[in-house]
Amino acid sequence: MLGDQALAAFSVRTTRTHFHGGETIITQGDEVGRIGVVVSGLLKIVVFTEDGAEHVLQTVGPGQLVGNTDGQRHGHAVEAATDGMVCWMPREAWNSFLKARPEHYQAFLSVTLQQYQEAQQGVIRMRGRNTLQRVAFWLLDQKPARGTGNVPLIRIALSRRDLASLLDMTAETLCRALHQLIERSAIRLPASDLVEIVDMERLRQLGKYPRDRIAGAENPRATPFPHPFVQVASSDRFEATMPPERLKRLSEFGAASR
Amino acid sequence: MLGDQALAAFSVRTTRTHFHGGETIITQGDEVGRIGVVVSGLLKIVVFTEDGAEHVLQTVGPGQLVGNTDGQRHGHAVEAATDGMVCWMPREAWNSFLKARPEHYQAFLSVTLQQYQEAQQGVIRMRGRNTLQRVAFWLLDQKPARGTGNVPLIRIALSRRDLASLLDMTAETLCRALHQLIERSAIRLPASDLVEIVDMERLRQLGKYPRDRIAGAENPRATPFPHPFVQVASSDRFEATMPPERLKRLSEFGAASR
DNA sequence: CGGCAGATTGAGACTAATCAAGAGGAGTGG
DNA sequence: CCACTCCTCTTGATTAGTCTCAATCTGCCG
After folding, report:
1. Where does the sequence pass through the membrane (chains A, B) (predicted)?
2. If you average pLDDT over residues B82-103, what whole number do you get?
3. How far does the CA of residue A102 sit from the closest CA of chain B (Å)?
4. pLDDT score at A212
5. How many separate helices (H) and strands (E) can be counted in chain A?
6. Mean pLDDT, to the nearest integer, of B222-238?
7. What gap in Å lies between CA B247 and CA B258, rounded to an integer?
8. A221 near A126, Cβ under 8 Å?
9. For residue range B111-154, what is the model confidence (pLDDT) as tens digits?
10. DSSP-derived 3-state class of residue A54
11. By CB neighbour count within 10 A (0-12 exposed, 13-18 middle, 19+ buried), where does B216 fall?
12. Ordered alpha helix ranges (H), A62-199
């Protein structure tokens, strides 16, 4: 699809970088002259306010973009929630690439608009919901990787503190909310970072989760930017960030709990 | 700047529409095959949740965009907060226009990214701030049109209920917050929709307003989309939405209060 | 002047933050 | 292999902040 010239000029400038959990990818206030496509792993967009507090605004998964091309300073930082990989390209390469192949503007815009929408969704999920509902809602919004025996299983890649921040509550409140969901037998906690959805319908009620979002058709995370050179692991973020030994332990648990 | 052909095909399809306060511009869930540039007045982006509650997410002023071009359904509605004007163009015209003149992609992206950033800012202003601080912060974020005697004066175009929704609180709490700001002599209320900033510094402290935002340089609302055919009233949203009789009454008030 | 809708003010209920303390888990060094 | 430390997670009691409900007030229109 790409012209030879554009492709050559472009792919030379492309850099894949591995990152590790906790690492800072982009520092707040920096001018980052490059843009990155997340290939695997999970990033988090955080903001440090003047009083030193850290706020997690959004998570960025495979196929989504970080950085900006307009030479503006970053109003937020980007940190790694898990290990993973980003594919970077410098601003000039990016811009000249887009200029040479305007048809890719459409894809770029689409992903940008999608992340914009996701930011709006993030606000909406906060509104008119108490802490319990927000937690339930978030759980339902995660890609439910099926565990052993087709039970929906969710890996919480974020720390309690980070997830609490994302959901705009304290870690203590998040903890209480999770255990309230357990008491009402909507979920179980095989491990502190694993959530097993026991009763999907009850969880929906508790989270005031709209019917039309159930299929995930409204705001699918899976319209990844069609990066020409990188295969994006979009479908299985679960396995991508799940260490093998955990999977093993998990299946043991599943067998034991039956 | 525009090629004759593109210009001709484009300007024919452009439609200016006046809107009145309270009017619904875009219905939630609609597929709107067009995009609009706000010329004057103020729009609000609202979401109706399943339980019937209405949430104001954002306001859209002159130079900013509404609608989308990707044929997707709207996750939110757009309503008029004041009287004003939008300049519409159908999706096909828009897309072919951008295709013909790729250099405008940059501007389009820029405005989109800006609104994206604004959405993020909207989240941040909520975080780690109580109701009083949110109100103070919002006031400082408004374009302070100077009133009589160079006193910063702000017109609240939104109803109490809408503004409260935007700031994620109840109308009652908003009201109390405003009056608390008055008690601490940071502001005055010449009329229920007019705020006079008496002590800017105190208001900043009460709103935890960062220093670097004071100049408004960080996130200026004034990088309007350079619409080729419409003159955008970007600088004076105040006067644009201020009925003449109010202005007159206001100056009388200013004279009387000295 | 009466009616109406939005804005204001007040009192009580309830949610979530804060402060404090205990439990679990991973890594380190002897 | 075990004790020790550090850090995160969890749990409990208290407090502060907002929401809710209700009543009153205000400006506006016919």
Report:
1. none
2. 81
3. 7
4. 58
5. 9, 12
6. 45
7. 17
8. no
9. 777 777 777 788 888 888 999 999 999 999 887 666 666 778 89
10. strand
11. middle
12. 91-100, 103-126, 131-141, 160-166, 171-183
pLDDT at B103 over 80: no
Do A30 and A85 touch, CB atoms closer than 8 A? no
Which residues are A153's β-sheet partners? A145, A196
Task: Give the confidence band of B235 by pLDDT, cuts at 50, 70, 90.
Answer: very low
Closest Cβ–Cβ partner in A47, A70, A208 for B124: A47
CA distances from residue A117 to A108, A123, B76, B113, B248 in whole angstroms, order as listed? 14, 10, 10, 12, 42
Q: How far is B133 from chain A (nearest CA, A)?
A: 14
- Structural domains in chain B, CATH included, are 4-125+220-235 (2.60.120.10), 130-207 (1.10.10.10)
Nucleotide D9, nearest residue via CA and C1': A160
Average pLDDT over residues B147-171: 88
* Optimal mutation site among A47, A92, A169, interface B, most CBs of chain B within 10 A: A47
Residues of A in contact with B121 (CB under 8 A): 75
Across chain A, which has 258 residues, the per-10-residue mean pLDDT values are 52 80 84 83 89 88 80 80 88 77 71 77 85 94 71 89 95 96 92 90 88 46 46 43 45 39
Asked if strand C comes closer than 7 Å to A132 Cβ, the answer is yes
B145: left (phi over 0), alpha (psi -120 to 50) or beta: beta
> What b/e sequence results for B163-177 when a residue is b if at least 16 CB atoms lie within 10 Å of its CB, and e otherwise?
bbbbbbbeeebbeeb
- Going by C-alpha positions, the residue among B202, B105, B29 that lies closest to residue A213 is B29
Asked if residue B89 has pLDDT above 60, the reply is yes
Q: What's at A237, amino acid-wise?
A: R
Task: Among A28-32, B153-157, B167-171, name the most confident range.
Answer: B167-171
Give the CA distances from residue B186 to residues A58, B136, B200, B204, B240, in Å, rounded to whole numbers and listed in that order: 34, 9, 7, 9, 26
Q: B189: pLDDT confidence band, cut at 50, 70 and 90?
A: very high
Contact A208 B50 (CB under 8 A): yes
Please report the pLDDT score of residue A251 as a whole number: 43
